[in-house]
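Extended Data, panel c. Modelled sequence:
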Amino acid sequence: MKIKKRLTISNILMLIIPLVLIFGVASAMKEPFMKIYDKKNEEFKLKDPYAYAIQDKLRFEMDKIIRKEDLNDFIVEVQKFLEPKGYNLIVTYDGEIVSSDITDEDRKAISQIGDDVVFKSNSLVLEMNSTCFVKNSFKKDNKVINVIAINSSYVPVRFNMRDEMKNVMFGYIGVVFLISIIIITITNVILSSKIYKKLIKPLELLSYGSEQIKDGNLDFEMNYESDDEFGQVCSDFNDMRLRLKDSVEKQLKFEENRKQLVAGISHDLRTPLTAIKGYVEGLRDGIANTPEKQFKYLNTIYTKACDMDVLVDSLFLFSKLDTGSFPFKFNVMSASYYIESFYNIAKSEFYGKNIDICFENKCSNLTKIKVDFQEMNRVLFNIVENSIKYNNNILVKTKILLYETDDSVVIEVSDNGKGVLDEELKNLFVGFYRGDTSRTNPSEGSGLGLAIAKRIVEDHGGKISAYNMNGLIIKIILPKVIKVHENK
C-alpha cells in the first residue's frame, strides 16, 4: 500500500475510531447519569412537603379502602409516607377519630384554623404561616371518612429541575470529555506507532545502504518487500548499487587493461628498439665490415622500424576508436553484395598463401546494413590473417558464412585450425593479448588486431564473439537497416 494512501487511511481512522468510541461511551454513560438524576428526583419527592403532592398521595391511597377494616393498613401506609415529610395524621370515620398522632403544636395550629374548617369542610389544602393543612374527605357506605395531614413546622421546598439537570449534564459532559481525550490519545498513539514503524524501517535500511556504499561495500542487498514508495526507492537504490558495482568493476578492468596495454606497448617497442640499437652499434663498431653484412644490418634495421611503424599506427587507431573520435564513413548497402566483394578481394589478396577461402550466402540480396567498407574490411582481413598466422596446418581452410535473423545480419568466419583454449576465449578481444605469455615473437602481430576489430564492430552497432567448433569461429552480428515505406 502506498504511503500516501496509508497516511490518508490513518488520518481517517484517527477521526472515525475516536468518534465511534466517544459516541459509544456517551451512549453508555447517558443511562447512569439519568439514573442519578432520577434518584435525586425520587429522593426529593420522598422529602418534599409540598401540600398538593401530599393530597394526591392521600387520594391515591384512599382509593384502596374498601371497608372499615382496611383503615388500619391505610393508616400504616400513609404514616410511612408522611413521617419523612414532617406531617402527622388524623383519621375520622363517621365523625369518630380512629387514629391520631398529632402533637401539641399541631393542635395549636388546628385551633387557629378552626374546628369547622378542619372537621366539617370538604377536601381542601391550606398553607398558612408555618402550617400546612391537607384534608381529603369521601363517603364509603354512607359513612364520611376524613383523612387529615398537618405539618405545623412547614417549610416549602421546591425542586429546581433546571439546576439539577444542569449539574447532571455538566458532570456527564465532563466525564465524556475526559474519556474522549483518553480515547483520542490512545488511538493516535497506536496508529502513529504503526505508521512510524512502516516509515522507520525503510529509512533505516536506506541509511544502512548509504553507509555501506560510503565504506566501499557494494556487495550488500536491500531486502524490502513492499509495494509502497519506499519499495520503489529501495529497488532503485539496489539498481543504483548494481550499476555502481558494475561501473567500479568495469573501471578496475579498464585500469587492468590499461596496465596491460602500457606493458604491451613497452615490450613490443622495446624489442625492435633493442634490435635496432644492437645493429646500429654493430655498424658503428665496425662489426659489419663487409658490404654484404652492412646491407643485412641496414635491412634488419629498416624491417624493425617498419614493425614499429605498424605498431604505432595500430596504437593510434586503437586510441581513436577507444576515445570515440574515429571518423567512420558509413554507407547503406546490401549485405550480400558487401561480403561477396570482400570475398573476391580476399581470394586475390591471399592467393598462393596456403589458404582455401570459400563463401556461403544464405542472406537475401535485399537485406541491407550500414557499414564502413574500409574499416569492416580491416576487421575481416585481420580475422583471416589470424587463421593463417596461428594455424600450423599445411593448407588453411577458411569459410565465410552469411545469414540473417529477424533484425540482424550474421557473418561467421571459421577455420580448420586447432582453435583457442576455452580459458583464453574471454581474453581474445583484449588489447595486446596473443595467447603468448612470453611475447617473444612480436613480429607476428601487435596483439591489437582483434581488440581493434571489437571496437569497429561495436561502433557499427554490432557484436563480435568467438567460440570453438572444429576450429575457431569468429561471429559478427550487425543490425539490419529497416526502411519504412510510405504509402502516397
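Residues 436-443, 484-488 have pLDDT under 50 and may be disordered. This feature is highlighted in the accompanying rendering.
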